[in-house]
Amino acid sequence: MADISQTPANLRPDRSSVGGALTFLVHRWPTLLGLLAMAFSVFDDQDGRAQGIVVFLAALVYLATAVVGRPGVAWILLGACIVGVTVVRLLDAELWPALVAGAASIIILSLVSDLPRRPRLAAMQIPLMLVCGAAAVVALSLSPALGSYLVAAALIGHGIQDVIVWRANKVVARSLAEFCLVLDLTLGVAIIILQLT
């Protein structure tokens, strides 16, 4: 039986690279979760218009978190949104009127709160919700191709905002900004690729 201690170092398994890979994966869990969410979204429905819900909920969570003023609640709000959408779908109710009503309520709350007077990045969540929300809703009334491109543009636009929020480490938890930027950018690009093929 060979003694492993006598095996040349370049032939031994490199435990530091395995440990390094695990450390990387632990620290990049939001990236992996974003990629997983993108894969499920693309395989779930190839009509890009249906992915408007992703950018709508992303903008809604960012705005609601900005209103609350506590970045740490972003994941809780995202979970609440997912549960809400699931319940509405299980009840076989119309999803978009419920989403628009919820967003309108948060927008009104944000306007009567001190959010418009807070730092620019937080205050910008109001017009971003309006733009992303409108893009998602308008896309539903367009042709599948044109609506898909509009949703893809909104996702990529929100992804750019995710980068800014991630770098500033403001508005939402940095882990949510990372998750959202990976989901938004990759899903937006995937929608465009699916439209071109």
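(ticket continues) Second input and output from the same batch:
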Amino acid sequence: MAEGTGTGTGTTGTATAGTVPPAEPPAVTPPVTTSTTVPITAEQLAAVKPALQQQMLTDKAEASHAAAKLDQAADSGKLTLDVDAADALIKAVDAARDQVMDLWKRATDQLATPLQLGENPVAKAISARFADLAVGEDSGAAKALLDLFKVLDDIGNALRRNRDTIRDTDEEAEKSMKNAGGSW
């Protein structure tokens, strides 16, 4: 049906002399949300810190264990990927690692910014405590990101070693086949 005419004639999508080109589809407007982000207090953050730290340590241990198993499998030759699959996986792991590093850089700068709670001793103490929770060397959120970066880097290195071993093995097999008079 031609747009706006009420007739059953269709449009072809091309404008000719004396005709109006078809209208562009309306832009999609994202739904409006009324949710708001409510900042948490230093007391609330301090209250959940032990649980967050425990979960972070558990997650780090699981990721480190998985990376160690991958590393061991790559070193022992039990991990077998073709070179193209290994390259694709290495690319994905490296991209994730780089994203984590970018996030760490942004987060560290932002989280290390002192809170502007005032100039009294209590405000300064809360600000210092929040900074320690956020970017502390032993347990801060920034440390968790750095730990994840290291795990992803280890995984990427293990995959590279495996890919290189596969490539070397394929090249040796090709040479052996050619030396024996066969073709690869």
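Agent notes: The longest helix spans residues 141-179. DSSP finds four helices and no strands in the chain. Closing as not reproducible unless the customer responds.
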